[in-house]
Specification:
The protein has 20 helices and 21 strands. It is of the alpha+beta class. It is a single-pass membrane protein.
Length: about 575
């Protein structure tokens, strides 16, 4: 037998067990894999199909939106006070930046940092080292020139996003009233905050499905954008500019720490101007102290002093304890009330009628009138004139003032109340009081929105006494009155001065608040104006010396601006000279 035949015979006799078991094992393994795959597929398709749908949607669904700019704020004539301008934000995808090695191109990376006004170290810190991050802002509200520069660099992983930036054309003139927004265009102060919801629209939204190449293949949902509303204020930008200019000059001239001016249309309750000084630039608030942002005309309270004296006189007339012919003896210039003294500045007033009490600002005169009636009647008139309550403006931070509701008042407390102590008001509250006197005795809520008719009012004074008070206020401006510097050439105006010490712990300090509240023109009242100067540092600190001239300058410009005919040559409402000196 040859060797080849022997080898073939051995192969035929060899047991095939090992080869067979290998084949069986492989087949069983394949079968198990197949069963597992089928089971997994059945589980995903039948028991948990939502997960597959979700994963598919994450890879194919995209939401696109369009930017909606914030609504404009304009004055009553359509002049823009706040507008939104489109700008760009620069952002980065850290994963792309790190994977593409954008930081390795040192020359381009340095140029990018300089274009964004930061160092390369700051830029690297913004990007970080975490490749899982996909979005980080590098700079927001970037100028068009800077965006164009960065775009030309073409740095991988650096992208742009459209947003808007708020711009205030009037700057510091309307800063406290309009307020401002934050970097996300959300109102944080003033009108911007109060009407944030109205001014903010809703961006449009479109849900689309895209293929692997990023092409839109199906629109699933579409929501139209809800445009924002524009806001038209009652403010007259021309009057606002005049008021701010004169107030700022007075604050600087007399070294006051601050000041406020409010001008109200007496017929509608519309606020035509509301200015504060010192102000700030709302377009660049960097390094501005936070306390400069508050609108002092609505937030800051002060004791009104003699500017409140029309109210006790009107209360006595309404109650009947005095009439238009009443004469009060103010001699000898001081009066002991409830264990304390009430004094007049001058001891030579003698007998004064009601006009004389107003013109010479007699504390004794109003004290006797206040004590001639039940205290509740006096308080009721104060409350009915809007003291101790908000004005209807509903501006952020508005104060309601302070006027106690208690039932027991000592005689000296009532006396103090009659000449403007033991209560606090804001500039807008005082303007509302004088607007009610100017329109014949109807108290209306104030409004900062344009309203030709105004909101419904409530009669709080009889027309006869409101008209008589206008004549008394005019006497304050005439020779012999306390506010001769408040006169306006060619026009009849009236008002009342106020000078009060500022309260400190345990009493009153050496700082003053000088104020003037007035109405113009007297023959047909149109405007109620309040001027407040806080803590003047000069030798002049009386309301008649420093606040009345501001009123005169403002009203002189406003009356001519509104083309109101001069009325100084017409017959006076009253010819009374204001008093009778003692013989």
């Amino acid at each position: 037998m040859t060797r080849a035949q022997t080898r073939q015979h051995a192969k035929r006799n060899q047991a095939p067990g090992i080869v067979g078991w290998r084949f069986i094992f492989v087949m069983l393994a394949l079968a198990m894999v197949f069963v597992v795959l089928v089971a997994r597929a059945a589980y995903l398709q039948v028991l948990e199909p939502e997960m597959l749908v979700t994963q598919g949607d994450l890879r194919s669904l995209r939401v696109t939106s369009n930017t909606v700019l914030r609504g404009m704020i304009t004055d009553r004539h359509g002049e823009e006070l706040a507008v939104s301008v489109p700008v760009q934000a620069v952002w980065a995808d850290p994963k792309v930046v790190l994977e593409r090695g954008s930081q390795q191109d040192e020359r381009r990376w340095q140029a990018l940092a300089e274009g964004l006004n930061m160092s390369t170290e700051q830029l690297n810190q913004r990007i970080g080292t975490d490749e899982r991050r996909r979005f980080v802002y590098l700079q927001r509200q970037v100028s068009p020139a800077a965006v164009d520069y960065v775009r030309r660099l073409n740095v991988p992983g650096i992208y742009f996003r459209q947003e808007s930036r708020r711009f205030y054309p009037a700057g510091e003139i309307t800063a406290h009233l309009i307020g401002f927004t934050d970097i996300d265009d959300v109102g944080v102060e003033g009108i911007e905050r109060r009407y944030n919801t109205l001014l903010t629209g809703t961006a449009g939204r479109t849900l689309v499905r895209r293929d692997a190449k990023g092409r839109d293949i199906e629109v699933l949902e579409r929501e139209d954008a809800q445009p924002p509303r524009n806001l038209q204020l009652s403010i007259d930008q021309r009057i606002q500019s005049i008021a701010y200019r004169e107030l700022k000059q007075a604050v600087l001239t007399y070294g006051a720490t601050s000041g406020s001016v409010v001008i109200v249309d007496v017929d509608t309750g519309e606020v035509l101007a509301m200015a504060n000084s010192p102000s700030f630039n709302p377009n660049n608030r960097r390094n501005t102290p936070v306390h400069h942002f508050r609108n002092r005309a609505v937030t800051d309270m002060f004791e009104p002093g003699s500017t409140i004296k029309p109210l006790p006189i009107l209360a006595a007339l309404e109650f009947g304890s005095a009439d238009l012919s009443t004469v009060i003896d103010t001699r000898p210039g001081m009066l002991r009330v409830g264990g304390s003294w009430v004094r007049d500045v001058s001891t030579r007033h003698g007998e004064l009628d009601l006009t004389g009490i107003m013109a010479r600002s007699s504390n004794i005169g109003v004290t006797k009138l206040a004590l001639s009636m039940p205290h509740q009647h006096l308080l009721d008139l104060y409350f009915s004139m809007g003291l101790g309550s908000d004005t209807g403006l509903n501006l952020s931070g508005e104060s309601s003032g302070m006027l106690s509701h208690r039932n027991r008042w000592s005689e000296h407390e009532l006396a103090s109340l009659s000449f403007g102590y033991n209560l606090s008001v804001t500039a807008v509250q005082l303007a509302r009081v004088y607007a009610a006197i100017g329109n014949g005795g109807i108290l209306r809520p104030l409004t900062i929105l344009k309203s030709e008719q105004g909101l419904p009012g409530e009669r709080v004074l009889s027309p006869e006494y409101a008209k008589a008070m206008l004549a008394m206020m005019e006497a304050v401006i005439e020779p012999g009155g306390t506010a001769t510097r408040g006169r306006v050439d060619g026009y009849r105006v009236g008002g009342k001065t106020g000078t009060t010490r500022k309260a400190v712990a345990g009493g009153y300090g050496d700082d003053y608040v000088a104020s003037f509240a007035g109405v113009a023109p007297i023959s047909n009242p149109r405007f109620a104006t309040v001027v407040v100067l806080n803590e003047p540092a000069s030798d002049y600190y009386h309301g008649g010396e420093i606040a009345a001239p501001v009123f005169a300058n403002i009203m002189s410009a406003v009356l001519r601006l509104k083309n109101i005919a001069p009325d100084a040559e017409r017959v006076r409402i009253s010819q009374r000279q204001g008093g009778r000196d003692a013989s």
